[in-house]
Design a protein that fits this description.
CATH class of the domain at 12-23 and 62-98 and 132-208: Alpha Beta
Radius of gyration: 19 Å
CATH superfamily of the domain at 12-23 and 62-98 and 132-208: HAD superfamily/HAD-like
Strand content: 15-25%
CATH topology of the domain at 12-23 and 62-98 and 132-208: Rossmann fold
Largest sheet: 5 strands, parallel
CATH architecture of the domain at 12-23 and 62-98 and 132-208: 3-Layer(aba) Sandwich
Low-confidence stretches: 104-123
Shape: globular
Strand order of the largest sheet: 9-4-1-10-11
Structural class: alpha/beta
Mean pLDDT: 86
Number of strands: 11
């Protein structure tokens, strides 16, 4: 999905966290402290399992989310996280630990690992080929309140009109942001944001905000 080839994008796209970017309630299902495997970068919590799961839970995004965030960053779209969770520190820690592949260009920032040889090929460790997820977000509104408050803050901080904002969230009650002019997309239960839903959201935003038709005087 190459967003650079897309005709029009909102200037700001925001995402809820729980059951939108990841498949858990961070304040209920995740037991701190979090741990990161030094060999793989995979993040785990400190639980012995929940809802029938055994062992620590993996703290990660839904499968399509890393690619969506990377494409948005490459396209110059402002990315925001809007969550009403009360587990603010834990949510922030998860965003700092979860890693997103850099693509063709590897980041060496904060890297202490050196490349290793494997069958004659030089491969880079996860610390050099990925970046912390939090670096992909331009704005973070993570605190318990009505989502309209989050978007009023985004409007104040960015200066962007609500008509240029698209929001993905799994709770119907948060559709109330539409009274501000934000385009709201409901994330189906248990699905999370995936490429199809994301494209559907872009189409809905374009439908609501069509490009102005050039007037005769502009010709």
């Amino acid at each position: 999905m190459d967003l650079k080839m897309t005709m029009r994008l909102p200037k700001l796209i925001a995402f809820d966290l729980d059951y939108t970017l990841w498949d858990f309630w961070v304040d209920t299902h995740i037991e701190p402290p979090l741990h990161q495997d030094p060999k793989t970068g995979v993040v785990y919590d400190n639980s012995t399992g929940y809802y029938g799961r055994e062992g620590p839970s993996t703290v990660e995004f839904y499968g399509d989310v890393p690619g969506i965030l990377k494409n948005l960053r490459d396209a110059g779209v402002t990315i925001a996280a809007c969550s009403r969770t009360s587990a603010i520190k834990l949510a922030m820690e998860a965003l700092k630990l979860i890693r997103i592949p850099n693509g063709t260009e590897a980041s060496t920032e904060n890297s202490t690992n050196t490349p290793t040889e494997n069958n004659g090929d030089v491969s880079q460790s996860w610390t050099t080929t990925t970046s912390p997820a939090v670096k992909f977000f331009d704005q973070l509104e993570i605190y318990p309140t009505d989502k309209t408050v989050h978007f009023k803050e985004l409007h104040k901080k960015t200066g962007l009109p609500y008509s240029e904002m698209l929001f993905f969230d799994d709770e119907r009650r948060n559709r109330n942001v539409e009274k501000l002019g934000v385009t709201f997309i409901l994330v189906p239960e248990g699905r999370g944001v995936d490429n199809k839903l994301f494209k559907d959201g872009l189409r809905e935003w374009r439908k609501r905000h069509p490009e102005p038709t050039p007037s005769a005087s502009d010709a």
